[in-house]
């Protein structure tokens, strides 16, 4: 049936694909699907320009996707020389958002090979690629721990060390939320906001690791400004240790939810919730879902609205997210 339908299309409309998005107006709405997994469309054996044969029109892979809000819209691909093209996987993240303009096959690309799909690859890339920022922070953590243990000969570890360690972790959660919501998504244009917008403008699945100079500089400044100037050295080290642990956890969490790693086993529910939360922030409306390390922070600060309510509001206001990928998807 699908083959007959495709053959009945005009010559310039060859293949049906799917992309993530939300309709801009009611007139452009098509049929939308709520799914728990991200489908991919495999187009095979494109030989004759007048004939399209699809062996497997839709292959629902087991890729983790946004459960509540993964919507797929049909688009058309304009005619090209398809003689040598086989087994193209149409990814939602590489398709332009407009449902009216035809899409050239040359705009389609396979998923980036640099984005990890397994946990072992993700760990290796996180610690052993780029300028080794996370590795440097890990070494700093070991150094701080060793320093504090050395001081234990004169100042024994106590419940105060534990209290300041925990307090600095909780402080990180609040700092993370407000820096994201009020500074990186500020209404005032500044370089940090531009850099963060560049992150949003990339495909959702990409390698996102902050440079070592930023990580080390941030942790060093935090040690002196937040802790050392008002706390004795032993407690300052304990507080800085908690702060750095929370910072490294955030760096890993933000990195891993932007990869294609499938979360399984113990704790997978937490990581899936974190990825879903962050995908909503990227793909539905960047004015909500700011929390990261602790997704419940969005509940605390009322930035976790009902997904369908946000979509209806976006459609009514014709809202355009400025952080929606390479083509700035209209929501």
Mean pLDDT: 71
Extract low-pLDDT stretches.
Answer: 1-113, 319-331
Number of DSSP strand runs: 5
Strand content: 5-15%
Radius of gyration: 24 Å
Overall geometric form? globular
Across the major sheet, the strand order is: 3-2-5
Largest sheet, in brief, is:
3 strands, antiparallel
Counted by DSSP, the helix tally is 10
As for the number of domains, it is 2
Query: Could you tell me how far the N terminus lies from the C terminus, measured between alpha carbons in angstroms?
Result: 32 Å
Return the string of H and E elements.
HEEEEEHHHHHHHHH
Which structural category do the helix and sheet elements fall into? mainly alpha
Binned, the helix content reads 40-55%
What does it look like?
Residues 167-302 form the Fatty acid hydroxylase domain. InterPro entries: Fatty_acid_hydroxylase. It comes from Nitzschia inconspicua. One of its GO terms (biological process) is lipid biosynthetic process. The chain crosses the membrane at residues 125-144, 156-174, 212-231. With 331 residues, the chain is mainly alpha-helical. It folds into two domains: 2-107, no CATH class; 119-317, no CATH class. It is 44% helix and 9% strand. The chain has ten helices and five strands, in the order H-E-E-E-E-E-H-H-H-H-H-H-H-H-H. Helix 3 packs antiparallel against helix 7. It is globular. The two termini are 32 Å apart.
Task: Kindly list the characteristics that best describe this protein.
iron ion binding, mainly alpha, disordered C terminus, three-stranded antiparallel beta sheet, Fatty_acid_hydroxylase, transmembrane, two-stranded antiparallel ribbon, 331 residues, 44% helix, transmembrane helix, single chain
